[in-house]
Amino acid sequence: MAGRTSPSNGGAGRRTVLAGTAAALAAALAGCDAAPSGQPSDDAPQGPLVTGRKPKGKDVIDVVADCGAKGDGRTDDSRAFARAYAYAAGRVWDHIGRTVIDIPAGTYLIRSPHALLNAPAGKLKANGLRFRGAGKRMTQLIFAPSRSEDAYLCRNEDGWANVMFEQIAFRSATPGASFFYSFSTGQAQDYRFSECEWTGEWTYGLALDGSNTNSEMRWDACRVGGSYRKAFLYSGLSQKSPDRSQQDQFLNYWFTDMKVEYSWGNFLEFPYGGSVTCRGGSYIITGRRPGDSPDYGRTSTFFRFPRGPHHDSVQRFHAEDIRFEVRGPDTVVIDCAWDSGTVHFNDCDDTAHSFKPFAETSRPHRYRIGPRGPLVRYDSCQLSGKHFYEEDAGGGPKARYDMCLLRNHSAQDFIEGAGGRVSFVDCLGT
Question: In degrees rounded to 5, what are phi and psi of residue 343?
Answer without folding.
Answer: -130, 130
